[in-house]
Design a protein that fits this description.
Strand content: under 5%
Shape: flat
Order of helices and strands: HHH
Structural class: mainly alpha
Helix content: 55-70%
Number of helices: 3
Distance between the termini: 45 Å
Largest sheet: none
C-alpha cells in the first residue's frame, strides 16, 4: 500500500510525491498488463523485444567516447 502524508496542508506536493511513488512501484504497468489476457507467445515476443532494445541502448551508451 502506497502512503503519503500531507505536510503543512501542501496537497500539491503530496500529490507529486504520490505520483512518483506509484510510478516507481510500477503499479500502473502491472494493472495495464492484467487488464486483459495476453497469450504466452505474445509475452515472450515482447520480452525478447524489450531485451533487444535494452541491449542496444547499453551498447550505445558504452560506445560513446569523449
Amino acid at each position: 500500500m502506497i502512503e503519503v502524508k500531507v505536510k503543512k496542508n501542501n496537497i500539491e506536493k503530496a500529490l507529486r510525491e504520490f505520483k512518483r511513488k506509484v510510478k516507481d512501484s510500477k503499479l500502473l504497468l502491472e494493472l495495464s498488463e492484467k487488464s486483459y489476457y495476453t497469450k504466452p507467445s505474445v509475452k515472450r515476443r515482447r520480452k525478447k523485444l524489450r531485451s533487444k532494445l535494452r541491449m542496444r541502448q547499453n551498447t550505445e551508451k558504452n560506445n560513446i567516447s569523449y
